[in-house]
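Reader question, answered in our methods column.
A reader sent in the components of a multi-part assembly and asked whether the whole thing could be modeled at once rather than chain by chain. We filled in our standard form and ran it. Here is what they sent:
COMPLEX SIZE: two components
ENTRIES:
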Amino acid sequence: MTSFDPYIILSVRWGLVTLLSLYAVFSAVMISKVRYLSGVLETEVSPALSVLVLLNFVFSLFLIVLTLVTI
Amino acid sequence: MVKGLSAFARDPKITFKDQEAGENVLLLLRRHQVTNIWWIFVTLVLAVFPLFFWLGNAPSQLAGMPFFSPGHLFLLTLVWYLFTLGFALINFLDWFFNVDLITDKRLVDMDYENLLYFRASETNYSKLEDVTYKVSGIFQSIFNFGNVEFQTAGTEENFDLEEVPNPEGVHDLITDLMAKTPEAG
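And here is the structure of the entire assembly that came back:
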């Protein structure tokens, strides 16, 4: 493990963080879109859907932190 | 099934933007649930795949290699599930918000194609000239779903309800509403 090229470790670390950050942005767009569409069409499922996309966003943030801690 | 997830809901308990006072939604339509099978199947395959990886001997084989500690593999598995969740969410939203509403006054078509595109259009029954429905193919015949197409008067855009359940019933309801509309030709 210690003999492994540190540049590769850094590449993987920041590559993964970049990927997850892009996903987090995508999730944030999804949250705003679902909020907007829940206003256009109000159904009994809309609140649960809003919570689900919020959890998706939180999960992506959690994995960014986990990546920075783990790798 | 949760009523809010129905593809064919009579008198649904919903409201929509720009709904007029006293306007009642008679029917809510989405694509038939069968059209969701492909992405549900892909999601299940994506969800099960890491289980085979973990239950097999792959982790022990990779353990000797640098950068493949159980902690790293677990992190990559979580990232995998995050993207799987995103894939399922995108496809679910695409189905859930692609809605057609038949009210007692007009027809409302909401098109959601992706996160950056949404369009809502509407037409009164008096502007509809011709309604046809089409059921084609094995799946549509077995599960009774298909397209309902509307020709509108003049330069107005034609409407198209795609892969909705019970197209014959939708056709009958629309023609009844057209007949009740005073300006119907």
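What stands out: Strands of chain B lie at 8-10, 15-16, 25-29, 99-103, 106-114, 117-124, 128-134, 145-152, 159-165. Residues 3-13+24-31+101-180 of chain B form a domain with the PH-domain like fold (CATH 2.30.29).
Send us your own complexes using the same form.
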